[in-house]
Amino acid sequence: MAVNRNFPSIKPSSRSYIPGTYPQVEFVAQNGAKSVLRYGDKKVDAKLSLGFTNITDSQANEILNLYEEVNSDYDYIFFTSANALAGVNSSSLVNNMAEKDSNGVKLRYRFDGPPSVSSVRPGRSNVQCKFVACLDGD
Amino acid sequence: MAGFYSGKEGELLIDGTKVAKVRSFSFSFNQAVLETVSLEDTDRTIIHGTRSYTGSASVYYYQETAGGGAGQLSTLITNIIKTGSGAGDGANAESTAMTFKLRIKDGSTAGRFIEFQAIPTSFGITSAVGEVTAADISFEVNGAPTGLAL
Asked: What is the DSSP string of A8-52?
């Protein structure tokens, strides 16, 4: 069973978040009339991108270890304002970006591809990570 | 020798040999910084990046004897400017890096100095009516200085 793993306590230098979309199909008639078939009532595939600038190599390694741990068991990642969501003052915005509500986690974040690590100088690296929030079927 | 120092005490040595008539030299140190600001921070935080050193000198074209060349200035010129076998010859010898020593004479044997290997990055020589012919050189240091006693 997939378990929740906390993101390391590393604050990003940049962050972008795109809320998910509803799973649906649109049909547009020749007169422009639009019909929508919606397949679910939950948004899916929210995107979160994090950039870490000039972090230590050991911090970069923590992120790589998380990538390994999450993908080996198909676990998922939990973000809080103590790590990736640092600087977001509104708790409701934190909840929205972490894809959780009063009932718990709505969507489960996983890596949307491997993180990229660029070495800047001895002992320092830049890391870019992309995450996608999935609606698990379990 | 206690006191202040001026250009009278300045010396420039190239590859260990003193340049005869130096008008001026300058040297500067630069420290690059890397930003470590993360979200939630209110003030810019930085760490050390790479150090770099650059300098320049202005040297009179001075010959001891007619046809004898201008000593270390001529050495510098032949180190950086390489002749080809003919017009259009684009593949010739690389310029040679040189050791520079900027020294302030203070009465001691060694004086106060900084020494480094550098690659000249620009060179210009001007001859004009009413002016003494002089060359301006700029250089960038390769690696860290090899000697420092300033």
From this structure: PS---SEEEEE--B--EEEEE-TTS-EEEEE--SS-B-EEEEEEE
